[in-house]
């Protein structure tokens, strides 16, 4: 077949295949048209369409309060931000025009997301007949919220973004399926992910996810320049793709190819600077809002800081959390560096860690110690996790913890977890802990794979011993 079939590779899929006759046979012929990648793209489309249906009640329901939105778990940031960020008037996110700034708040997102939101606002209003923006500019902002035309545009805006996100999800699936040429089915855990269904439309995070998937694909094809460019563009969209450079550093040190790391880093910096240039040059103060907004935030949803703050009534300041979160993350990165440099050295052949493995370990550390952990941040881990540990049992354990948290956060915001006698919603704390434990479980399994490559399905498939003490190394 030219690739590893999951019914013969994964115990969970093997057991499930008994329903349709058992694992793929030795002499089975693959379908001429339905290649693994095309099947995965179809599955991604179905799952993402189901995600759109899951979010539909919050767009179609009229006269519902915010608690109703939380109880149906269909909240998305896209509709609520359309008016207050000036997208309703197609205002450039980094405009320093006094009238614009007096009416609308600055975008608190990185430049890549701001560009996308602004571009989709243009498409939205074109689809809605290009409304008279001069008239809107003379209308008080409070009245725009009740304008039927604006209401329609908010729904169109969500749908336009949904189409774009769907294309990004398909692109990410295609890229992930191509990282390991003989293991395209590893991307099935991404295509069929319940977290993709539930969180894909909450915010603009899929932009960075697609770029991270592209970086993983480019590195597997030995293209350090393209890898660096995609990491730089990803960092201009969300900060976390920057951490992939830490994984590249370990791999290049292990392979004694520091030049490749330097090339990727330089191009990452250049791509980030080029992506941010239009924003900074047109509105430097507005460009800085993202950085100031995040530095001034206190402990927020989903974070261990929030749990400790509420449970112990500590009252952490933003400065304290900023300092200690970066100290803890720095210590975490040192540990990952040591693991990456020491793992896989025993045995007849040295096994170099893969970028997805190191990337997951670094990013999960950042999320665990970060002061805010929004529900959709699970998407940051998704492309890394499915390639780092392509086993359905472990993916199910991890994603089940994420789904559990997804439910508790909306119940918490809706007030449904509040004790009858008053006080903090302790059950929400359980959701935070379960989520963190699920992520740390997967991290522990990945570390085990690094030190014992005989447990790593990718290493077993792609690593060939040529002779005693010699072998072919791969680190897709």
What does this structure look like?
There is one protein chain. By secondary structure, the chain is an all-alpha fold. It contains 24 helices and two strands. It has helices at 11-17, 36-60, 66-71, 78-82, 98-103, 111-127, 133-137, 141-144, 148-177, 188-191, 194-199, 206-220, 224-235, 244-254, 258-282, 284-287, 289-296, 304-312, 318-342, 355-369, 378-388, 392-413, 426-451, 457-462, and strands at residues 464-467, 470-472. Strands 1-2 form a two-stranded antiparallel ribbon. Helix 19 (318-342) runs antiparallel to helix 20 and helix 20 packs antiparallel against helix 23 (426-451).
- Integer average pLDDT: 89
- Which shape, going by the Cα principal axes? globular
Radius of gyration: 23 Å
Number of helices: 24
Oligomeric form of this entry? single chain
Q: Characteristics of this structure?
A:
64% helix; 476 residues; two-stranded antiparallel ribbon; 2 strands
Nutshell version of this structure?
This protein is mostly helical. It has helices at residues 11-17, 36-60, 66-71, 78-82, 98-103, 111-127, 133-137, 141-144, 148-177, 188-191, 194-199, 206-220, 224-235, 244-254, 258-282, 284-287, 289-296, 304-312, 318-342, 355-369, 378-388, 392-413, 426-451, 457-462; strands at 464-467, 470-472.
Task: Describe the protein's topology.
Blueprint: H1 11-17, H2 36-60, H3 66-71, H4 78-82, H5 98-103, H6 111-127, H7 133-137, H8 141-144, H9 148-177, H10 188-191, H11 194-199, H12 206-220, H13 224-235, H14 244-254, H15 258-282, H16 284-287, H17 289-296, H18 304-312, H19 318-342, H20 355-369, H21 378-388, H22 392-413, H23 426-451, H24 457-462, E1 464-467, E2 470-472
Antiparallel strand pairs: 1-2
Helix pairs in contact: 2-9, 6-9, 9-12, 12-13, 12-21, 13-15, 14-15, 14-19, 14-20, 19-20, 20-21, 20-23, 22-23
